[in-house]
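Hi there, hope your week has been kind to you so far. No rush at all, and the record is pasted right below.
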Amino acid sequence: MSRVVARLCFALLFALTTVVAPVLAQAPAAPPTAPPARPPQSAQDPPLATQQPPTSPATPATQAAPEPALPAGSPSSPPVEAPTPGVERIAYDYTALYEAINPAIVKIHADGATGSGFLISAEGFVATNHHVVRNSRYLAAQFADGRKVLVHPVVLDPRFDVAILRVHPDVVAGVTPLRLLPAGDDDRVQPGLAVLAFGSPLSQTFLMTQGIVAKVEPEALLGDFVIEPGNSGGPLVNLAGEVVGINTFGQGGIAGAVPVGRLRELLEDDVVVHHDAPPPPAELLPTLRRERYPTELLKSRIVREALDPKAYQIDAGKFTITVITPVLVGKASVRDDMMQLQNRMQRRGKKMADPAWREVDTPFYDWARSAAGQLDYAVTLEVKPDFGTTSGSKWKLFASAFVAGAAGTPMAMPHQQVEFKAEFQELRLYRDGELIAPVHPGRSVTEAAFQGQDITFIDEAYSGMYVYAPEVFMTGTEFRIEVYDAREPGRPHRVILLRPDSRVLQQIRADFAETETS
């Protein structure tokens, strides 16, 4: 009996292992343990794409859905990486940020250069760098929509390189000022913070570049955001659209900005809080066309027309006026190189296997790509003071000649001192008796520093760079140019009349004749 019972138990155990076990293996696994809760987001973490502050001017783009997981063991399945707490992949709509911020950006026009700035209040206050506007008689702000108006300085802070200007409030009606980073959030500006720089660098206007803050110092934010000449004064903003700094300098791939804290302090100054001076006028100033001189037309003129420098020069007493057009710049810059290649083609053209070889155009296109700022649709009257020997040097020369003549010996040439003979103050252009306002009445310092065995020329004086739209010169029967010397206040130093038969006026009209219909 015991043997029978043992055999029955063995049979039952065998059945369980061969039939029931496979069924249990196919049963669903126990639910996984819930992942640990994500720690709260710190102030340094980037804002979530779906949790942007409601006051931000831009809406970040929605994060893309993850790719579906491949079966385990698949040859093409990616390696599984453990999630890093507190780090998320975030997509931003930079186009929306640009469109929200750009209307408040301005291009600052000063006497000798241009820079950038940005609107900070509905009352018309504009922030920029001090070095953009220092020592400038003429200040204007141009918005992205093309409007250009006068601005007045309100506060100038050379120590921290910050300035506050003002435009008429009517000009900025409907334009949203940029928000400054709140004072309590300054500690959020740390290395690694993503930032955007706005401004008008080089020959371009209203550009946005991206980078990160690399180092934070008490008086500067350093990073790899692109800063070039013309960017100075523009805003440096975080991804929420808040201004964290004012773009100031760039060197060797490293850029610097003034922390926004100094700007907040200036806005609390009594000069700003109780500013009651009349705002500048709201009338629009003249501007140039947005397009530049036609490239192919310029190339053909450089090739077929000889350069005649005298056709672009005007004698203005102790000044020389040079009429600068894109045609003159092109001929002076690249015509010789093009002619050299053209002569080479004429000598060897019959042996060229490729009839479409057009290497003669290469110098022009290489130059044109790098000279975009010199091809604006404009006529510039450059007024430079002449130079000559000083009165003392002239007396030394006369005395040396007199002594040599009396003694019958060769004259010993005395050392000569050279100086500028005038100091530019202003230029006025009248067409048929009507005063024409320039697009830009520029004035800058011209320096000379040369010292040799027989001559010393170390001096500086103001020159003028007055920019006009070409249309000004295309009609009219008489143009009167008045040049003023700062040493002769109250009366013009020289008056020049240009009539239709004038060589200079004919050259201007020839340079722009075909562009009127192009």
